[in-house]
Structure formats: C-alpha cells, structure tokens
Design brief:
Blueprint lengths: L18 E2 L2 E5 L2 E5 L2 E2 L10 E5 L4 E5 L11 E5 L2 E5 L10 E5 L4 E5 L11 E5 L2 E5 L2 E2 L2 E2 L3 E5 L4 E5 L11 E5 L2 E5 L1
Antiparallel strand pairs: 1-4, 2-3, 3-5, 5-6, 7-8, 8-9, 9-10, 11-12, 12-15, 13-14, 15-16, 17-18
C-alpha cells in the first residue's frame, strides 16, 4: 500500500503457496512470513519461513522453523530478531522461539508466561515484546504478557480492559500498544 498515492500495488507473489494461520514479523527492511496451513484452512501445518526483500521485490526461502509444524502462532519483532510465540501443533503451545536473520537460525527461548493459545496479538515497544489475548481451549483470553529478550523472561501485565477477545489485531505507535477488531 502506498499511502501518498492511496493505491495498492501488486508485488512478487508469495512462493509458499496459499495458506491461512501464518505468522509474520519485520526486521529492518525485510519481512518474514511462514508457518500456517498450506492451501488454506484445513490444510497441513507447515514450518517454512520466507524473507521478502522490498527493494528487490523478491522472496527467499530461509531456515525452516525449528519447532513442530505449527499454525496460528503470533509473530513479533524486537530489535533485530523475530519471535514466534504460542500457536497450535496438535495442542496449544506455550513455546517462544527466536529467529536470528543474520545467522538464519532459530533458538528456543523461555516458554510464554500464560497458557498456550492461538491467534494472540503481539507488538513491540522499545526492547520488549507484548503478547496477549487470543484463544485457548475454545475460550477467548484477555491476559497480556511482556517479554524481555535480554533476560529471557515473561512478566504478567494488565489484562486487556475490553474483556476476553480472540482473533484480533494489535500494533504499537509512539510507545503505546493498540488492540482492536
């Protein structure tokens, strides 16, 4: 999307094929998209990761996610690393995985502080990541957690004030987090 022209411009097609429940994060000038259900809802879960280069308008395969094939995980970026948190891989997962784009490697980090879930919301403010809400066991969640990569710790924060919510969107602007839809 070009906000100055208020137009959409088609870019290189995602080579991983149609899918749902993928996660994504951006690091610097590159975007990373992966995991999810190949072919859309009801398809096989995947563990691939693709890097999009906006300057070259091209996709490059990267190291597969090091955990189980997974869908509906939450992706966030903190500083120069990407993170895949929670998701579904035959059960609700609590795992946190860090992706290093410079080494093209995945590392297991401390488990998420809340219960396992799918479709959580994530965003970063400063050097910390925030993840919450989502769905677990058929129940929408309202808790929020802060992740500190420097200490590899999760800390409980204030619950989302709007009640239990799942399948929503979140982002950060000027050191404040937003949640909606």
């Amino acid at each position: 999307y070009d906000p100055a022209a208020n137009t959409w411009i088609e870019k290189a097609k995602f080579p991983g094929g149609p899918r749902s429940g993928a996660m994504a994060f951006a690091i610097g000038t590159k975007a990373y998209v992966g995991t999810g259900e190949a072919g859309g809802i009801g398809g096989q879960s995947t563990k691939d990761l693709w890097e999009y280069d906006q300057v070259a308008n091209s996709w490059t395969p990267k190291a597969d996610f090091a955990g189980s094939k997974i869908k509906n995980a939450t992706g966030i970026s903190i500083s120069d690393k990407g993170y895949l948190v929670c998701g579904w891989a035959g059960a609700y997962k609590k795992e946190t995985w860090e992706y290093d784009p410079f080494d093209d490697t995945w590392s297991k980090r401390a488990d998420f502080g809340g219960n396992g879930r799918t479709m959580g919301v994530g965003f970063a403010i400063g050097n910390a990541g925030y993840i919450g809400t989502g769905e677990s066991g058929g129940i929408n969640q309202k808790d929020f957690w802060q992740y500190e990569p420097a200490t590899d710790t999760w800390t409980k924060k204030a619950d989302y004030g709007g009640g239990e919510i799942g399948w929503s969107a979140g982002f950060a602007i000027d050191n404040e987090g937003y949640l909606g839809t």
